[in-house]
Amino acid sequence: MTEGSGIPDELKAMVGTMTEPVIIEVERGAIRRYADAVDDQNPLFRDVEYAKNSRYGEIICPPGFFGWPIKGGGLEKMMGVIMPAMFKAGLFRILDGGVDQEFFLPIHAGDVLTCYGKIADIREREGRSGKMLFVILEDTYLNQNGDVVAKARSTIIAR
Q1: Domains of the chain, with CATH numbers?
Q2: Kindly report the CA angle at 149 between 63 and 38, in degrees rounded to 5?
């Protein structure tokens, strides 16, 4: 471990580590099923004619839905990278600290996204019950034109 820090060197060295890209196909049926699952009746997410006549020209994804990965997701791959190192360091108490999402451009049905996951940061904080590590995982989503459409930052809290 680093002097004065509870962050194991092995974990610190992982900051900046990126996953292989994950390809995600966004299709109308998946958008509708997601909108149904979250009970969002917005016609931009389900009505083709309505969406075609809107400024978007096609059905778009509701916030938080990025389509389905063809093979494995960025966050899942990143968890597979960091969890063994956390367990090795004796960090067995793991808590989901939530996800922050930032949207830049609409995601349309028919888009093909590329997602890159990375370990963005690891920091330590002192809490009432002792030291905790906060691991920030970041997924960046680019569309087929190379434009960043969204970022998702997941926080994992470990003790």
Answers
A1: 1-25+66-159 (3.10.129), 27-65 (no CATH)
A2: 15
Strands (E), the chain: 22-25, 68-69, 94-103, 112-127, 130-142, 148-158
Q: What angle do CA 131, 97, 12 make, to 5 degrees?
A: 55
> What sign does the dihedral 59-65-67-68 (CA atoms) show?
negative
pTM above 0.90, yes or no: no
Q: How far apart are the C-alpha atoms of 122 and 133, rounded to whole Å?
A: 7
pLDDT > 70 fraction of the chain, expressed in percent and rounded: 91
**What is the separation, in whole angstroms, between the first and last Cα of the chain?**
15
